Amino acid sequence: MASHIERRKFLATLLGGAAAAWPLAARAQQPASKIPRIGIIDPGAIRGDHFRQTLRDLGYIEGQTVAFEYRSAEDKPDRLAAAASELAQLPVDVIVAFGTAAAYAAKQATTTIPIVMLGVGDPVRSGLVTSLARPGENITGNTILGPELGAKRLQLFKEVLPTISRVAFLWNPNNASHAAYLEEWKAAAATLGVTMQFVAVGSPDEFDSAFAAVMRERPDGFTMTADPLHQLHIGQIIDFLAKNRLPAMFQQRENVVAGGLMSYGASLPDLFRRGASYVDKILRGTRPAELPVEEPVKFDLSINLKTAKAAGLTIPESFILRADEVIE
Question: pTM for this one?
Answer without folding.
Answer: 0.79
